[in-house]
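Deliverable D5.2: sample structural annotation.
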Amino acid sequence: MNSPISLDASLLRRYDRPGPRYTSYPTAPQFHAAFGAHELRSYAARSNALPGRRPLSLYVHVPFCFSPCFYCGCNRVITRDLSRGERYADDLLEEIELVAPLFDPGREVVQLHLGGGTPNFLGCEPLERLIAGAGRAFRLSDAANRDFSIELDPRSLPEPPAVYAAALARLGFNRASLGVQDFDPDVQRAVNRMQTVEETLDLIDACRDNGFRSINVDLIYGLPGQTPERFRRTLRTVMSARPDRIAVYGYAHLPTLFKAQRRIDPAALPDAAARIELLRLAIDELSGDGYTYIGMDHFALPGDELVQAQEHGGLHRNFMGYTTHADCDLVGIGASAISHIADSYSQNFRELKTWKAALAERRLPLWRGLALTFDDRVRASVIGQLMCQGVIDTEAVQQNHGIDFQAYFADALVQLQPLAGDGLVRVTHGQIAATSLGRLLLRNIAMCFDRYLAAAQPAAGTAPLSRAV
């Protein structure tokens, strides 16, 4: 989808219904507390026994933020007490000491990502201790092969941009992701995130000057007060900096789930038609400026590794988004962090107090998890192909899992028929492919293969899902 696409507003409104984002399958609501430390150790042992010493990917969650962004749905703690970050770094090192022995010491960590929250809340010294401790516990890959990334808030750097970017580079970081959301002052005031163009572009320049090989910028459409004119200015300002990747997320207004969102006036939110127009604008602007659509709100320059991975069938999707590291086990560290080890998922306690209490007792701070069944694995492979490549190779699915695709997914194929009639998907012998329009609605196509959505009614207390558009 490298050129502007015609969007049928009435069709998009029809498909604008709640659904998972499929950073995993099964999705997190299916995790349960019966999966505990014993199960996690068992799956880590299974992973160690696989041939080839699978590499590892570490995700470290830093929940602290200096102020609340009203749109945010992340697990975060609002504080200006920097000593909490210093203590949290010590707690992370304790968890690393508990988790690292589960894995063969010869397994290499090729990817490390710090997310949040605001990872730069930690400051340079705690961050240096954290990376040094991770290097003692795990085998970190050399500079040529590593993919070390960090999410940055340009408003709250512990040092001037040039100094801080240089410090990150010395620690091995070579990728950065900057939150922007929108540069319009009225929109920023409505969501409590005042951020200047200058401080953002200065940080991008500083990262590039210090050898970072990839810069990502996050934007959000559907925020209060957004108009096509205002959002166009933001898009063009961001594109002028030529970041390697741009993510354009649809705002999910779920005030019953996220308390901070209750500060947003729902009357100021764009309606469904306006949201669709903002999405159309983003696609036209980015495609017209040479960005390639990856899928699920993500765009990248043609030479980016994500584009190359997609072209060669090596793109992968996990809780960090799209990645080129499909062959890694993901190890989550920190409050609420999620791991994907062998055929299992596991998640740490979300509440900081509970997570810290487990560490104080020298216990893995595991809250819940899931051991994947055969059916889970089959459907995960199908949904993963769709979300990453936009195409399901039905012949490969049959061969890899020993099933008759037509018979196994008979119900899903029936559900796909109206989507095919609306031009979202083409079903042919050996292949199910999303069209250019369908690639905007990959979640809707994937939902046809989701056995858990097909179950009766959601359990009481189940978190609501964001809308597809």
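Annotation notes: Residues 456-462 have pLDDT under 50 and may be disordered. The chain is about 35% helix and 20% strand.
The annotation will be released with the project's public dataset once the embargo ends.
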